[in-house]
């Protein structure tokens, strides 16, 4: 399994390098904006996220399927995607401008109307660039994709944060977002022209094939986006901007989940496709096991650490003004645990887009049908609980489907032993961190750092001591550990 380790790590490193600045965008904003303005910001970008997912029409994601299989048509399928994304973005911009008052009323905040045109322009430009990293990964340009992820996220963060720090205005934040998106679009067009040259051309037969693949997948994405964000819409429309600000802090978007899970799933899909194309279907299960185990090594301990340090995390990042978000965040941490299983990637490899649509309809039905009762019974925490329940049901059904696609028994579909061992190691590593939390009384920042250090050292020792890493992973880890020591030796020798 060494072949998947380097590209996966490269992509993860690319996303991780920009994690700090990206993650701290809301941390800066809660210190500049009051809760009402911060809530408005979250509502505006909630609309952006919903439309960004829906308006892609499945065209960008279809490149994972078409470029590896039809290399000669790469330029045509990419340009088809860019044009369709531009048309979709223009339609969204027009709708946001025409129905701004109605949309503001739906989200429960009339202040939102003033920001819908600039967010629509940002959406249009970002949609046209959605093909950038996907094209690189589909062509196995993993290092280039890693660098692009890192540089793009860093620049985006700067363009959003600096205007707010200097001018303390949500209007200027959106102006910075539009400027960044324009810069990213320029780079995207330059890359596509350089990479595909004269092969960039509209191709209607290709477009029909893309639509045949993408439209069922797009229907799944539409339902996925709606169900993934329905809980936030429900809280926003029923409780207003200030309560939504607290709820959105509790449902903190954790970028590391995306920049670990997405590259791992993307590499998994490319490798699975290669094996199936070469007729080595039995290798697919081993690839699935390897990816799931790697994600478990990262996400299971992170989930445990987030739960035991939820109070310190919220107080450090968002101040005591958002202390009411602590119980919400404790529950929301379970999304990290569910991310261990990249089931959508497996289903997409087997072109099970209709089944993905079915799963997302089930999730949306569970959430929409039961969220009212959960909100009445548990308050705003109920919105998190029903979302987690629906996701668990969907993942379970997808794993059952995967057993049939891979023709294996339920006992073999997951690396049960490895996941159980990782879980035990994570729980054991939590004990020293819990003791620090209970016995040491410090300011939240050093307290959180001490807890994290105790947990990390304990977990690393248990993982290495009990042999939970394979040979390639051990070599990579020991290489990272040796590098600082070798650098110090060279410095001493050079002096």
Short descriptors:
mainly alpha
Descriptive notes:
The chain is mainly alpha-helical. It has a domain at 33-214. Helix content is 82%, strand content 0%. It has 23 helices and no strands. The protein has helices at 2-16, 19-23, 25-32, 35-55, 63-69, 74-98, 100-106, 116-128, 132-138, 142-167, 170-196, 204-250, 255-277, 283-308, 310-318, 326-332, 334-338, 343-349, 353-378, 381-406, 416-439, 444-465, 471-494. The protein is globular. The model has no long low-confidence stretch (mean pLDDT 86).
**SSE pattern:** HHHHHHHHHHHHHHHHHHHHHHH
Class based on secondary structure composition and strand pairing: mainly alpha
Instruction: Measure the end-to-end span.
Output: 41 Å
Number of helices: 23
Question: What's the number of extended β-strand segments?
Answer: 0
Low-pLDDT runs: none
Mean pLDDT: 86
Strand count, sense and closure of the main sheet?
none
Shape: globular
Q: Give Rg in angstroms.
A: 23 Å
Strand content: under 5%
What level of helicity do the residues show? over 70%
């Amino acid at each position: 399994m060494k072949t998947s380790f380097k590209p996966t790590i490269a992509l993860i490193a690319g996303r991780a390098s920009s994690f700090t600045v990206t993650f701290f965008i809301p941390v800066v904003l809660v210190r500049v904006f009051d809760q009402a303005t911060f809530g408005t910001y979250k509502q505006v970008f909630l609309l952006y996220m919903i439309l960004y997912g829906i308006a892609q029409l499945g065209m960008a994601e279809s490149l994972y399927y078409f470029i590896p299989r039809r290399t000669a048509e790469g330029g045509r399928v990419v340009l088809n995607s860019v044009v369709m994304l531009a048309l979709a973005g223009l339609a969204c911009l027009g709708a946001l401008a025409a129905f701004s008052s109605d949309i503001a009323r739906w989200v429960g905040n009339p202040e939102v109307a003033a920001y819908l045109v600039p967010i629509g322009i940002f959406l249009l430009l970002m949609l046209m660039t959605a093909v950038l990293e996907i094209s690189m990964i589909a062509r196995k340009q993993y290092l280039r994709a890693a660098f692009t992820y890192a540089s793009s996220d860093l620049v985006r963060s700067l363009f959003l944060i600096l205007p707010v720090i200097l001018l303390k205005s949500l209007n200027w934040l959106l102006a910075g977002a539009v400027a960044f998106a324009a810069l990213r679009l320029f780079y995207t067009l330059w890359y596509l022209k350089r990479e595909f040259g004269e092969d960039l051309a509209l191709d209607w037969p290709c477009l029909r094939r893309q639509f045949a693949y993408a439209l069922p997948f797009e229907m799944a994405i539409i339902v996925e986006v709606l169900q993934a964000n329905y809980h936030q819409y429900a809280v926003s429309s029923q409780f207003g901007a200030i309560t939504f600000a607290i709820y959105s802090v509790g449902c903190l978007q954790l970028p590391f989940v995306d920049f670990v899970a997405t590259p791992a799933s993307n590499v998994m899909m490319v490798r699975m496709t290669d094996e199936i194309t070469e007729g080595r279907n039995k290798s697919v299960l081993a690839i699935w096991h390897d990816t799931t185990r790697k994600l478990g090594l990262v996400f299971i301990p992170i989930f445990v650490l987030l739960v035991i340090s939820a109070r310190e995390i919220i107080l450090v990042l968002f101040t005591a003004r958002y202390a009411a978000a602590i119980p919400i965040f404790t529950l929301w941490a379970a999304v990290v645990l569910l991310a261990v299983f990249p089931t959508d990637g497996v289903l997409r490899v087997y072109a099970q887009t209709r089944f993905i649509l079915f799963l997302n309809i089930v999730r949306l039905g569970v959430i929409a049908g039961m969220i009212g009762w959960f909100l009445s019974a548990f308050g705003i925490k109920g919105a998190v609980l029903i979302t987690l329940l629906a996701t668990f049901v969907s993942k379970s059904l997808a794993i059952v489907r995967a057993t049939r696609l891979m023709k294996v028994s339920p006992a073999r579909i997951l690396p049960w032993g490895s996941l159980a061992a990782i879980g035990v190691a994570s729980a054991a590593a939590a004990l020293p961190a819990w003791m620090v939390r209970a016995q040491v009384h410090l300011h939240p920042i050093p307290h959180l750092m001490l807890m994290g250090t105790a947990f990390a050292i304990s977990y690393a020792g248990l993982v290495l001591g009990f042999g939970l890493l394979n040979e390639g992973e051990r070599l990579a880890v020991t290489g990272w550990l040796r590098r600082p020591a070798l650098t110090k030796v060279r410095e001493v020798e050079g002096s």
